[in-house]
Design goal:
This protein is an alpha/beta fold. The protein has 2 domains: about 190 residues, Rossmann fold (3-Layer(aba) Sandwich), CATH 3.40.50.720; about 90 residues, UDP-galactose 4-epimerase, domain 1, CATH 3.90.25. About 35% of the residues lie in helices and about 20% in strands. The protein has 9 helices and 13 strands. The strands form 3 sheets. Strands 3-2-1-4-5-6-10 form a 7-stranded parallel sheet, sandwiched between helices. Strands 7, 9, 11 and 13 form a 4-stranded mixed sheet that branches. Strands 8-12 form a two-stranded parallel sheet. The radius of gyration is 20 Å and the shape is globular.
């Protein structure tokens, strides 16, 4: 095992993803040296390409030895797939990263993307959920992210390396994946011509803790720069936002005549009406995002609003 120390740069896994792109752009704007590692060739010059399915300890080790980062943002992961596949990606990639760090002897700050889905049954409708809530995920995705979190906390305890899991709630912005409700709404609206159409939704009366992806990027950078930030921290606002309000903002921005049709098949039984996180820990660390007009911001998720033409 070598004992060389980080060289001062930043390494991002998943820099081609929704949050990763925003984070890389934000860090570039700060003039910080940023490299990336992942299966998709990033646009930046400093990139270590990983063949699909080959995120091994050795691969991680080569990337770490090459870049010798002071900070690693591990954002790569999967949101869809079989329970086994999700575990293999979300837990497996993190475990390989931790093993590679042990092998190289590097001791960078490690920031991982966690998820509000880790809480599951711990969420009380309308009550801000805190980081110390007893997690009981309801989905395979949530279980895989909780397994990642537990592995990260164990690694931190065993090595003394500063590790932080940012439990990200509901980021929004242009490029939001289409399997998420607002991303799907944006794609439907973009597909309509000037004559509009009928947009299909699930339950748009539920409220969620929403925040701009750019604010997620800012908060991640602030947490990484704060030596007091470690363990699990909610990345949220603590403010509920009605899904329907954001949809209305998108329809208004489109300038298209659109009607809404509710599809019973899209409804989720037993779904909490209001899910918000407690931002107290985030605020104490100086990384709580500012309040935003999300209804207006939702309109920017469209690729070609009629009124902007």
């Amino acid at each position: 095992m070598s004992s060389h120390q980080p060289g001062g740069g930043i390494l991002i896994s998943g820099a081609g993803g929704f949050i990763g792109r925003a984070l890389a752009t934000h860090l570039d704007g700060r003039g910080l040296p940023v490299a990336s590692v992942g299966t998709r060739r990033d646009v930046r010059a400093e990139h270590w390409t990983v063949a699909p399915g080959h995120w091994s300890v050795a691969t991680w080790g080569k990337a770490l030895d090459h870049f010798r980062p002071a900070t690693v943002f591990h954002l790569a992961g999967a949101t869809q797939g079989t329970p086994e596949g999700l575990q293999a990606v979300n837990l497996g990639l993190a475990q390989a990263l931790f093993a590679a760090l042990r092998r190289t002897g590097l001791r960078p700050t490690v920031i991982l993307a966690g998820s509000a889905a880790e809480y599951g049954e711990a969420v009380v409708d309308g009550v801000p959920v805190r980081e110390d809530a007893p997690c009981a995920p309801l989905t395979a995705y949530g279980r895989s992210k909780l397994a990642q979190t537990r592995a990260a906390l164990t690694f931190a305890a065993e090595t003394g390396i500063r590790v932080l899991v940012a439990r990200i709630f509901n980021p929004i912005g242009r490029g939001l994946p289409g399997h998420l409700a607002l991303g799907d709404f944006a794609r439907q609206i973009d597909a309509f011509g000037a004559g509009g159409g009928t947009l299909v939704t699930g339950d748009i009366e539920v409220c969620r803790d929403m925040l701009l992806v750019e604010d997620v990027a800012w908060a991640l950078a602030e947490l990484a720069a704060n030596p007091a930030a470690s363990g699990v921290v909610n990345l949220c606002t603590g403010v509920p936002t009605r899904i329907g309000d954001l949809l209305e903002g998108m329809i208004l921005a489109s300038g298209k005549p659109i009607t809404i049709a509710h599809d019973p098949a899209r409804l989720r039984r037993g779904e909490r009406r209001v899910i918000v996180g407690s931002p107290d820990a985030l605020a104490a660390l100086g990384a709580k995002p500012p309040r935003r007009d999300l209804r207006q911001a939702a309109g920017t998720m469209l690729t070609a609003p009629l009124r902007a033409a």
